[in-house]
Amino acid sequence: MNKNSSNKMALAPNTSNKRETVCIFGTGDFGRALGHKMIQSGYPVVFGSRSAQTSSLIPKDAEVLSHAEAAQKAAIIIIAVQRQHYNFLTPLAEILHGKVLVDVSNNLKINQYPESNAEYLAQLVPGAKVVKAFNTVSAWALQSGTLDASRQVFVCGDDMEAKQMVMDIVRALGLTPLDKGSLLAAQEIENYPLQLFPMWKFPILLSLGLTAFFFFYCLIRDVIYPYVYENKDFSFFIAISIPNRICPILALILLALVYLPGVLAAVIQLYRGTKYRRFPDWLDKWMLCRKQLGLVALAFASLHVLYTLVIPIRSFVRWRISSRIVSQALNNKTEPLNTTNAWLSDSYLALGILGFFLFVLLGITSLPSVSNNVNWREFRFVQSKLGYLTLILCTAHTLVYGGNRFLSPSSYRWYLPNAYMLSLIVPCIVLVAKFVLIFPCLDKPLTQIRQGWERKPQYSE
Amino acid sequence: MNKNSSNKMALAPNTSNKRETVCIFGTGDFGRALGHKMIQSGYPVVFGSRSAQTSSLIPKDAEVLSHAEAAQKAAIIIIAVQRQHYNFLTPLAEILHGKVLVDVSNNLKINQYPESNAEYLAQLVPGAKVVKAFNTVSAWALQSGTLDASRQVFVCGDDMEAKQMVMDIVRALGLTPLDKGSLLAAQEIENYPLQLFPMWKFPILLSLGLTAFFFFYCLIRDVIYPYVYENKDFSFFIAISIPNRICPILALILLALVYLPGVLAAVIQLYRGTKYRRFPDWLDKWMLCRKQLGLVALAFASLHVLYTLVIPIRSFVRWRISSRIVSQALNNKTEPLNTTNAWLSDSYLALGILGFFLFVLLGITSLPSVSNNVNWREFRFVQSKLGYLTLILCTAHTLVYGGNRFLSPSSYRWYLPNAYMLSLIVPCIVLVAKFVLIFPCLDKPLTQIRQGWERKPQYSE
Amino acid sequence: MNKNSSNKMALAPNTSNKRETVCIFGTGDFGRALGHKMIQSGYPVVFGSRSAQTSSLIPKDAEVLSHAEAAQKAAIIIIAVQRQHYNFLTPLAEILHGKVLVDVSNNLKINQYPESNAEYLAQLVPGAKVVKAFNTVSAWALQSGTLDASRQVFVCGDDMEAKQMVMDIVRALGLTPLDKGSLLAAQEIENYPLQLFPMWKFPILLSLGLTAFFFFYCLIRDVIYPYVYENKDFSFFIAISIPNRICPILALILLALVYLPGVLAAVIQLYRGTKYRRFPDWLDKWMLCRKQLGLVALAFASLHVLYTLVIPIRSFVRWRISSRIVSQALNNKTEPLNTTNAWLSDSYLALGILGFFLFVLLGITSLPSVSNNVNWREFRFVQSKLGYLTLILCTAHTLVYGGNRFLSPSSYRWYLPNAYMLSLIVPCIVLVAKFVLIFPCLDKPLTQIRQGWERKPQYSE
After folding, report:
1. Is the dihedral of CA C251, C254, C257, C259 positive or negative?
2. CATH number of the domain to which C168 belongs
3. Which residues contact A7 (CB under 8 A, 6 or more apart)?
4. Per-residue pLDDT tens for A56-112?
5. Size of interface A-C (CB pairs under 8 A)
6. Considering the domain boundaries, does residue C215 fall inside one?
7. A381-402 mean pLDDT
8. Do residue B142 and residue B218 come from a single domain?
9. What residues does the Ferric oxidoreductase domain cover (chains A, B, C) (predicted)?
């Protein structure tokens, strides 16, 4: 929150002396925006342009010269042109010798070129010190001053001193430089702004698919069935009742899917007798998005909690309860307390509360700033021990919720079992498999394999 | 959490050899506290003082010498005196030549002097390498060892090596140095500890004002009106019922105010036909505190959720429900299920739950550690797409809540409409304006303008 | 979340040229895992081994040579052997002169040796530049590529350039280096991965003890007493009712224990008349784990909220309410609204909601990434002002909950007061003491003492 104010500070006039001139090649939108911002932060700016005539769009305090003249005025030259036009720099090689060239370019596709733009630039002008920076910042954000998004600017380059100079400019503009090492990191830095939640695609598609399936499943059982057989209109179940069936089911299945790949990996390693062979590709990808799967599961669990807690203020529920009480009063009978029911109801709620509580704890520890403060041993403890405890509690919650309804024939409409029964399949498999893997006769060889031991060492050669 | 323990580690005796002597000018409270801490961390400490006689307050293991003698014993000299007394350093210029001077001073007001204290120090002793550091740490925190607050120490300076030396000391004391670049950053670093949530002032004042207005509005409608006309004492509404009206109203209005400046900015840019003119000052400031406005709105939304969920355990609500059921039973009639009401009630709750859920997601992505892991494209996607979806859901939640009461005369007491109707004005304006701006005839020129195109380029020259 | 993908990037073939050869001494599990990962990231790897014969486990693309031959091929040598075997390096001292030696070792116990492994290594090979790194990464995580835990690699060393080289390798492997300063930090870095939530031990043990005590206390009062005297089976209270008594009690007591040490410290300082004497050890430790105490208290408060909100959907509660309504209907009487009860019920709920809301705010500001964005003044404001307000609200919540039951004889079963009465003792002591300390006659000298003033300065010499 204070970052914004620090930004304002940097614009204060008293910091406007002493800065060294910066040259910008290219008078396109990004070059102009960067120039504007630099002038505001007290840097004298010189634009290098083909035409060398002042365009009306260029900030007034900036000079516009030919490329060669502009380059001679500054030690740092920002190359704000597109990669396709980089070859205009070749004739300038002599003037650019020893200068710091800042590559700010982005591509349109991930891994568009065999080498990164910055590395290509370094090849074109071998005498210059190339630094990659600023590509993650948008011209619009620079201009409007409303940098609410990440203020991190990734910087990489082979020359330490050149990198320091660029990082100082980044700081002066009110942004936070992050040193990503040598110029080899440029490819990664150039790919970064093109991603849109890459790790989230699979978990979200999977949960959308499952949501659609369970929605129609519940629609058939809970809305269409009573309409056909009892001619009752329960279409309003679509708003809360059915979502409150889907959410816990998805939360449970997705949570189990977080722990399934670990179990599969253990089985594969036990079967192969070595850890030195790569897992199948799908398993690798699955393992990489476990955190995202878990967070989507947590989202569904949170929705389930909210949907459950509003139950008593639903108009339908109030009607059902009051009509039941009225009929009791009219029939002049009072029900005694059914202790078994009280036990079932309370323990199923308690298990759900504890499971959700641990689930939220898991979610909090997966926040970047929290997991950075936790060492490997602590992280393993939380994610593995607490994670399995959460899975056990949530599965138990569902089992107790089922209670004595599992075998009741009324649970099967059109031979379709209650949806929650389907949700128990995956978690039960995971828990049983994990339970089996804990036995010493399996746990011991697995530990040995993970420490590097091999059953049949011949094939790895 | 492990930071605390790392602090303990640094005090362990086995690290107490090898450190280089540090000199501290000034035996005031902060100088002594820093000296204490450095001795604990294994640094030999020499105090430079006017009187050169050991005071009882100075740590026992430290030497106290004259300024000149003390300065000669160390490569790093911490200037723990106030800016007004810096001129005693001028005669020492020769001895201080080449030394690292650490400016730890703070001011009483933001931007108190034209240049920062550290820059002033650098002017006074031109031969020394001035580094700004430690000004964000309090003497009390250093002394008591309970550094629960931020352990970040901002460091800036023009000499890389001097900065590294100071950063090593910072680390040795169990704190985290943060390189803020050259000495130009000193002004900002000196202003930093004087701020008290500067970006939060406007959102909090605004919400306090709106809260007061809506409190009295609801008091008149819900407590005074029934007291005057029906002689009923509903004063206890002040505890929950009225807050539960105010909270959702403020959440909705503030959320709409987050998106209003963006719409205004687009209108201004379309009207002006350029992006190269600054927005009016109030709009700039408004845009800078959108995140804070959103978070205050989220706080009100969370309170609304809590207030709503306790409804069924309120004594008044239980009484109302039971007396309604008893009267039904006594009148010997059972109400049939009103499907329309069930639909309205359920869909209004479902919209609220989904809106709140997305709102919490927005809040989580605004956590610094999360938004740092998100690139510009992803941030835009979350804050703009998800943000508008949240606004739409919350507005729909309020509209459906109103349901068929909008035109009912009972909603107007003393010609005052229900408070929630007032809350709909701003969000509806924002949504309609945004909807209009999406039309290609407006969206296209706007995109062009934001890419640097100008309708009347003459004026900018 | 993007970190994972950046990891994938680093494995792309186009970055596999240009890297400098790295030598690894030791072909154990960690050495091999690191070698695998480095080869994947494009580093030519040479293993130095006693036997110098290729083992089947060693990555195929790596060479295996004798120690001396391998060392000559690379500027960076990773020492992946255990500390006990370091003495094989002494005869190689000449070859290792000027090389960068990376110590990756860990110990089995905290502070196992008088000096850290890295410092021991630096003593053994005085001509080499020793850098400590990689000890916080596990071989299993490196191999499986699923580095979901912290990607931070702590790096320390006395030679800046050597440290930079190692940090570049760390970045190339997709990890985040964190410069911890000179080699003196090695001890702390080596202790780090051995910790398991050291600051949480005391708060968790304390809360487990208190939980056990209050569980049996409530069991006697709420389950055994009615069973003995009224022969009623309320054993199902164990699931929700009793936890929902224990949770608020523990939340309140632990929250008060967060503020008690501050009050005690003030009293001790006032009594001693100085701040220059260390607090007793137990008070120091207590103060260091206040954050953890507060977070455990918040966990209990959250559970209390969840347990409370499910009350209306508990089977027992529904039965109790409906049987009460039925008996009212059968007795043909309607209760009038009891305004006092409505006031008590609503204000107790409202106090609880506000208290919990502030408590959650306190918890959010204690997230590392948030507290890092807050300066000392802001942190003090939140933790002290908001903290005390939370304590006041929560204590008031409990007092109003008690309402007029404090003196009712039915509250005392077997002479045991209601459990919530016990929970009020500590918070009331803290609030009264704090209230007394605010009086100017005590606040003034305390402020002076904290600014360094002493009542009897003689003893400190």
Report:
1. negative
2. 3.40.50.720
3. A145, A147, A174
4. 667 777 888 888 889 999 999 999 988 888 988 888 888 999 999 999 988 888 888
5. 206
6. yes
7. 91
8. no
9. 249-394
Domain that holds residue B108: 22-194
Judgement on whether residues B176 and B222 belong to the same structural domain of the protein: no
- Which chains are within 8 Å of B by 3+ CB pairs? A, C
Q: Which residues of chain A neighbour C320 with C-beta distances below 8 Å?
A: 337
| Cβ-based contacts of B196 with chain A (< 8 Å) | none
Chain length of chain A: 461
pLDDT for residue C8 is more than 50: no
Query: Do C231 and C329 sit in the same domain of this protein?
Result: yes
Question: Which of C191, C309, C370 shows the shortest C-beta gap to B309?
Answer: C309
pLDDT number for residue B149:
54
pLDDT of residue A16: 34
Does B235 lie at the interface with C, CB-CB under 8 angstroms? Answer: yes
Chain A segment 90-149 residues within 8 A of C by beta carbon are 111, 114-115
CB spacing of B309 vs A307 below 8 angstroms: no
pLDDT at A8: 37
What is the Cα–Cα distance from C381 to C376, expressed in whole angstroms?
8
Pair A176, A207 in one domain: no
Asked if B349 lies within 8 A of A374 by C-beta distance, the reply is no
Contacts of C367 (CB under 8 A, 6+ apart): A367, A369, A370, B367, B369
In this predicted model, what pLDDT tens digit does every residue of C85-98 receive, in sequence order?
Answer: 898 888 888 899 99
Report the residue of chain A nearest C147, measured CA to CA: A288
The C-alpha angle with vertex A382 and arms to A377 and A383, in degrees rounded to 5, equals: 100
Q: Name the domain boundary from C194, C221, C238.
A: C194
- Pick from C141, C176, C194: which residue ends a domain? C194
A323 → closest Cβ in B335, B356, B454: B335
Minimal-distance CA residue of chain A relative to B4? A373
| Contact criterion met (CB < 8 Å) for A319 and B337 | yes
DSSP states of A16-41 as a string? -SSPPPEEEE--SHHHHHHHHHHHHT
Given pLDDT bands bounded at 50, 70 and 90, which one contains residue C53?
low
Q: A294 and A173, same structural domain?
A: no
For the segment C61-79, the average pLDDT, to the nearest whole number, is 89
Helical H segments across A148-289, by residue range:
160-172, 186-191, 201-218, 225-230, 243-272, 281-288
B11 located within any domain: no
Which whole number is the average pLDDT over A412-425?
85
> Strand A176-179 to strand B22-25: parallel, antiparallel, or no bridges (unpaired)?
unpaired
Spatial separation of the C-alpha atoms in residues C293 and C303, rounded to whole Å = 16
List of chain B residues with pLDDT < 50: 1-17, 458-461
d(CA B318, CA B86): 71
Chain segment C246-296, per-residue pLDDT in tens? 999 999 999 999 999 999 989 998 898 877 677 888 988 888 888 899 999
Each residue of B378-425: pLDDT tens digit? 888 888 889 999 999 999 999 999 877 777 777 777 778 888 888 999
Query: In terms of domains, do A157 and A207 share one?
Result: no
Q: Taking the mean position of all CA atoms in its chain, how far away is CA B427?
A: 24
pLDDT of residue A52: 56
Average pLDDT rounded to a whole number, residues C162-179: 85
What is the pTM assigned to this prediction?
0.86
- Kindly report, residue by residue over A87-99, the tens digit of the pLDDT: 888 888 889 999 9
User: Rounded to an integer, what distance in angstroms lies between the CA atom of residue A120 and that of residue A87?
Assistant: 10
Q: Is B10 a domain residue?
A: no
As for how many domains chain C has, the answer is: 2
Q: C287 touching B, CB under 8 A?
A: yes
Does any domain span residue C458? no
- Same domain for B172 and B261? no
**What is the spatial distance between Cα C300 and Cα C248, in angstroms, rounded to a whole number?**
7
Instruction: Answer yes or no: do C144 and C204 share one domain.
Output: no
Mean of pLDDT over chain C? 84
